[in-house]
Amino acid sequence: MAYLIYSITLLVLVTGTVLYFTRNSWQHLLPDISQYSGPASYLYSRLPSSFASDMEAGLSSSTFDLSGNVSSGDGRAGLDDAAKNEILKIMKKRRMRFDEARRVYMEQRFSDNGIAADGRPKDPKFVSFS
After folding, report:
1. What pLDDT is stored for residue 74 in this prediction?
2. Where are the transmembrane segments (predicted)?
């Protein structure tokens, strides 16, 4: 029995080593797995990195229009990555459109910074003269 286990282990190690050292000659025959959405595709999705890809990802609307940036050839990196990630999470989790998810995101940011939904500070010592 030990002889069989030893033989199988040695065969696997030798085969793995040969495949590793010759991978440049056979790796081009394998399909490109980056084009397939595997079972973990919902765990990670690449964030858009330009205004054009932000528009394609659904991060634009009539009230938040990025087409002017795209048509003028704006070379900046696009919208803030952290905000994009949070807004995309809200859009997927709550099944909302971009404008509604952006509003929810801003309300969360306001709340985290001590600002009420109407834009006034929650500080009890705040005095306003208007």
Report:
1. 64
2. 6-22
Q: Three-class SS of residue 27?
A: helix
> Which residues of the chain fall short of a pLDDT of 50?
none
Q: Rounded to an integer, what distance in angstroms lies between the CA atom of residue 92 and that of residue 81?
A: 16
Distance between CA 69 and CA 115 in Å, rounded?
30
pLDDT given at position 19: 93
Instruction: Confirm if 55 and 67 have CB atoms less than 8 A apart.
Output: yes
Closest CA to 122 of 130, 112, 106: 112
- pTM (2 d.p.): 0.53
**What whole-number distance in Å separates Cα of residue 79 and Cα of residue 51?**
7
Dihedral over Cα of 56, 62, 66, 68: its sign: positive
Q: Are 71 and 35 in contact (CB under 8 A)?
A: no
CA angle 127, 128, 130 (to 5 degrees): 155
Identify the pLDDT of residue 5: 93
